[in-house]
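Fig. S4 source data, part A: sequence.
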Amino acid sequence: MRMTKSLGKKLAVLLSAAVLAGSFTGCGLLQNTEIVFTTGLSGNQLFKIGKSVCTLPEAMIYVMDYQRQYEGVYGVEMWEHDFGGVTFEEYVKDTIVDQLASMKAITLLAGDYDVALSSDEENQVSQAAQEYFDALSTDQIEYMDLELKDVEGLYRDHALSGKVYEEITKDVNTEVSDDEARIITVQQIRLDSSETAQTVKEQLDSGRDFAAVASAYSLDSQITYTFGRGEHDSAYEEAAFVLENDQVSDIIETEDGYYILKCVNNFDQEATEANKITMVEKRRDELFESVYDQLVAETPSQFNSRLWGKVHFADWTGEMPPDFLGIYEQYLGT
């Protein structure tokens, strides 16, 4: 499972955003699922994870939300385009199921961590659901086979999953030192041989301008780089992080060539502070993953592929419904 963006926000917001970015795919929760047609699932039940059920009307909320976003940018013709061996429609449908499966599974942990929505949060769920449902046309409601309770249930799951995430990760160590999070900026020259590197180093030692020499010799068109620890080869990183401002390094040998660096800024304070937040979020993510992975391994699930196979984006050509996740943000996104 991968959750690396905006981890400090509520998980519900994270899930919705990460899927659009292609960065969160439900950890394959339904990849080894029992595929069923009728046994074990009834009526409009699309899948079941443990005791948590996702209905087709709930999934249709996501279908319409994705259709509204993608068709508004790329047009209706995109659904049949090849996307890595599957149609774009198949890819998005798989993403939707993985998204919903992840959220439904996470809510199963609420009891273990004594997490529940407050009365105020329940009221916000109801208000958000009412606003979304009231904005739907009769045709949209009929097409999605939707009732108000379906909208309320999905908003409730979003909110509850966020609270579960916060509870699991509340005791993560939030202390990060300046040096751990330090972000620096360097200019670099990358070369393909030690002989060329020695020639370049001699020119720099004689006083030639670093940027001019880089433009003449470097294998890369880009000269200036900003980064933190853990992003480069260890030899490169060790040399970079001991440089003072305007200092030029010795020749650095790595697997992909030879480097000479000049330090532009050995402590970008604003970027370092932002990196501290990112590092804490990564710690929270790693802790949550360990709990989530165990849940995935232990939770049986069933999926009705025939029911899902009947859903096609091209079947709806009317006006699109309101922004489901946008309304969630208005009421529960803080």
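Fig. S4 source data, part B ends here. The longest strand covers residues 257-265.
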